[in-house]
Amino acid sequence: MIKKENIFFSSLLVVLALSSTISAAPAFTDKMLTGYELAQDWDLIAAEELSNSLLENHPESGDAHFLSARIEFLKGNYNRASEILERVGDSYEEVSDFKNRVEATRKATQNFVTRETAHFRFRYKEGPDEVLLTYAEEVLEKSYLVLG
């Protein structure tokens, strides 16, 4: 799965790099590349700040909206990612594939319950396995204190 994700992002980065046609495009493209790198490295706070800046300066950019949707997806906000993707065309296979992935994930998780701790968010279907969350919360929070 990671290899497929890397191929997806590599091809998307190539599309972005080759699509610059206006004088401001190189700076925009560089920022987009940085945004994807931040998201891929799971630095979602920095990626989101950059994405918001890009959307503010380029509100009509499908690329900027796509990055924003990608970040929302990684944050687990599947409905929000789906809403954002409505502003993005289907010109590239990578985009339509991602739209399909978001929609499938959104449907699969629509009945999930969310439970949060100080540093973690758990999404799950209610049922007998949720008893394990008590232990998971404790272990993960203690691990977070040690590992950060």
Please sum up the structure shown.
With about 150 residues, this protein is mainly alpha-helical. It has seven helices and two strands. It has helices at about 1-20, 25-40, 45-55, 60-75, 80-85, 95-110, 130-145, and strands at about 115, 120-125.
Description:
This protein has 148 residues and is mainly α. It has 2 domains: 2-109, Serine Threonine Protein Phosphatase 5, Tetratricopeptide repeat, CATH 1.25.40.10; 113-147, no CATH class. The protein is 68% helix and 5% strand. The protein has 7 helices and 2 strands; from the N terminus they run H-H-H-H-H-H-E-E-H. It has helices at residues 2-18, 25-40, 44-57, 62-74, 78-85, 93-109, 132-147, and strands spanning 113-116, 121-124. Strands 1-2 form a two-stranded antiparallel sheet. The mean pLDDT is 87.
Based on the model shown, name its key terms.
148 residues; 2 domains; Serine Threonine Protein Phosphatase 5, Tetratricopeptide repeat; 68% helix
Number of domains: 2
Instruction: Name the CATH superfamily classification of the largest domain.
Output: Tetratricopeptide repeat domain
What is the CATH level 1 assignment of the largest domain?
A: Mainly Alpha
* 3D shape: flat
| Cross-sheet strand order for the largest sheet | 1-2
Indicate the mean pLDDT: 87
What is the CA-CA span between the terminal residues? Answer: 26 Å
Which percent range fits the helix content? 55-70%
Low-confidence stretches: none
- From the 3D coordinates, which CATH architecture of the largest domain would you assign? Alpha Horseshoe
Question: What structural class is derived from the secondary structure elements?
Answer: mainly alpha
Number of strands: 2
Continuous helix count: 7
Q: What sequence of helices (H) and strands (E) makes up the elements?
A: HHHHHHEEH
| Computed Rg | 17 Å
**Per CATH, what is the topology of the largest domain?**
Serine Threonine Protein Phosphatase 5, Tetratricopeptide repeat
- Biggest sheet overview: 2 strands, antiparallel
The proportion of strand residues reads: 5-15%
